[in-house]
Design a protein that fits this description.
- By secondary structure, the chain is of the alpha+beta class.
- It has 12 helices and 4 strands.
- A hairpin with a 2-residue loop joins strand 1 (224-228) and strand 2.
- The chain is globular and about 65 Å long.
- Mean pLDDT is 82; it is low at 187-193 and 288-300.
């Protein structure tokens, strides 16, 4: 099994780098996502961040091509290991400098840097070292043990998907919704029957006018939630300002903790914005990214 794993390492690594490189290099969303990344904060320019992301994508595609065509050559593996080490350094610095920003690893992630980004970069380092040392060919590994290779590749793909936050909407969120439908909310029996699950509050929020007005600022899924004086507080991260002066902001919504889709009238939803650097509330007229809509009540 160990020999099969090392033999397939070039193919798995090429798949990962080919996917992230192609998204960075060719996706139209790269320029849109760049201002939300830690790289834009570090370089102090969204345009420079876009250029670096596309250049990194080109490098990833080049390494992926080398891993596919010449896996026995140690150069592509060594290059992948160096690239992965660079990713780890960048993630550590970005996590320190801009904890609410995304990493831009796939140019489509808009969630803050988490352990999954570090784990995926570590996979690149370990995979690169493995390829450089073993210098085997992936097609030989597949031809010798096709059934085992298929199982191993499926497992590797599942691990890489689990480490990619931007793919959560395809498997993790539906899984969570299904679990709530089948088993119910685990806290319903202890916190009071009048409280609805958090997932129900999120669904109600995302169909409200308040969410439509704040959506251009929001840059993450739900980060935190708590209850206070009958209100359910839902916290997200966001970015406001123009591309040259993008700043992180906490977007905080408040709605009735007992409100659900079956309660009838549209619930009152309050929203407020807090600058993550200064900790001060941000006025609505400062949120240049938010289009003009019906005024919303602000939380105090």
């Amino acid at each position: 099994m160990l020999s099969l794993t090392t033999g397939l390492a070039p193919l798995v690594l090429a798949g990962l780098l080919g996917w992230t490189g192609a998204v960075k290099m060719f996706s139209r969303g790269t320029a849109q996502q760049a201002p939300k990344t830690a790289l834009a904060r570090i370089l102090r320019s969204s345009e420079r961040a876009t250029t670096v992301l596309r250049a990194t994508g080109a490098g990833e595609l080049l390494i992926a091509a080398g891993l596919l065509m010449t896996p026995a050559n140690p150069v592509p593996g060594a290059a992948a290991a160096v690239l992965g080490a660079g990713f780890l350094v960048y993630l550590g610095y970005g996590r320190t400098m801009a904890p609410e920003s995304s990493c831009g690893c796939s140019a489509s992630e808009d969630t803050p840097i988490t352990w999954r980004a570090f784990a995926r970069a570590a996979v690149v380092v370990i995979g690169g070292v493995t390829v450089a040392v073993t210098q085997g060919t992936w097609w030989s590994a597949i031809s010798e043990r096709p059934a085992g290779a298929l199982v191993l590749l499926a497992g590797a793909a599942a691990v890489l998907v689990a480490l990619s936050a931007d793919l959560d909407r395809w498997w993790l969120l539906p899984l969570r919704r299904t679990r709530l439908r089948v088993f119910g909310h685990p806290l319903l029996g202890t916190v009071g029957r009048d409280r609805v699950p958090v997932a129900a509050s999120v669904e109600l929020l995302e169909n409200s006018l308040a969410w439509q007005a704040a959506a251009p600022v929001v840059r993450s899924a739900l980060l935190d939630h708590w209850e206070e004086d009958g209100w359910r507080i839902l916290q997200y991260s966001g970015v406001y300002g123009d591309r040259e002066n993008a700043r992180p902001v906490a977007v905080v919504f408040a709605l009735d903790a007992t409100a659900g889709r079956d309660t009838g009238d549209d619930p009152i939803v309050r929203v407020s914005y807090v600058d993550m650097d200064s900790g001060e509330a941000v006025a609505m007229d400062e949120l240049h990214a938010v289009p003009s809509r019906r005024a919303l009540p602000m939380a105090g």
